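User: For my dataset I need records formatted as: sequence, then structure tokens, nothing else. Please produce one.
Assistant:
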Amino acid sequence: MVPLVPAKAGTQFLAKHWIPAYAGMSGESRNGREMVDIPLSDFRKMAIEEFDTSKLLRHAAQQAAERGYDKFPIVDVDSHHYELESLDQILDYMDDPVLQQLARSATQSGGSKGTGVLPGGVGYQDIGGRVLRYSVRKLEKVPAEPHRDVSLTRRWMDAMGTDIAVIFPSPMLQLGLHPQVEMEVAFARAYNRWLVERVLADEPRIRSMLYLPFNDPAASFRMVQEFAGKPGVVGFMVTAARYRPVHHNDYMKTYAALEERGLPLAFHAAYNWNDQAMAMMNRFISVHALGFVFYNMVHMTNWIINGLPERFPRLKVIWIESGLAWLPFMIQRLDNEYMMRSSEAPALKKLPGDYIRDMFFTSQPMELTDMGALETTFRMIRAETQLLYSSDYPHWDFDLPSTIYDLPFLSETAKRNILGGNAARLFGLQLGAKLAKVA
């Protein structure tokens, strides 16, 4: 385990912070202040005081200027914040005093935010410490107001040229695996209330699709009733890593409520290494490659074969953070099965693949290893109208807008649709002048 050392008193960061004592970490004095250096490689190091999102993304800002992102809107449909850094604030919104006390005490005894109360995900997102922002993001300095998450989100949005960002939680993507349904419901409502009041209310450029506690269908329905129409809320989201059939009749009220309000429903991918199928794999790369696709494949199959697109034809469905390579497989596989066994899907009025092409998909992580295959995928899913740019920032495998803009087979119109136009139409966004500060 990496040893920890406290930040020295008198430095520009607070003494309460603890910093990983990486091998080779050294200290120096600069302008009379102690600095702590973290090695970036064998020959280069960076002082903690220097860490800043704007500096980290300076090449992204250069791309934004060179590609003329100031001329058209960019909407990021999947980005993230680290909600557990504000866990104490979120728990203030938890109504049940018993559950709140359990959550606070479990966190305190566990020694870190969320430990002991949230289902933990075994994984190595920082690639053994190579992705530095995981370890030092808490030390980035922001003004006292607005909320820290607002300031940090504004910084990366301006660097990338992003006008509107739809943000989601990070550790809570696995909340659907919590063994206590009542705790998922309590956390979900507390988080949604906190997010709406403390983050979305302070910055109209930040939007969200709020968390649905899907293990409790009645609570999910109440969540839509309570939060639909709140400032910044553009839809609702189900974390995909869970074991509930999306076609169960208990959810029909929720789907109907979303359809009536014109609000999309998203299934956000996640992994679960504890799943028996995933547990057979011994490397995180394997679990990440399959886990972020597996649950969405199951949910999409159930959604289509059980006729939900026919039952709720005006409900827009989005599949988030599974990449794109799985979609040609799903279209071909389900179409082929349906042609042989259509009697088992009597509600369908067209091929499963045609329903898939009516859905929406976020772009990240976009598989770029075979341009010909990618171009075919874009054609098969009607990307020009159905694909939504997403960065997944600040996660380790995030994609910049140039991932879309630089594709050689896209027209200028298609690029602008995918980068912002499709999302603006889907969410009913009124975008006028450029909001991002592109240099």
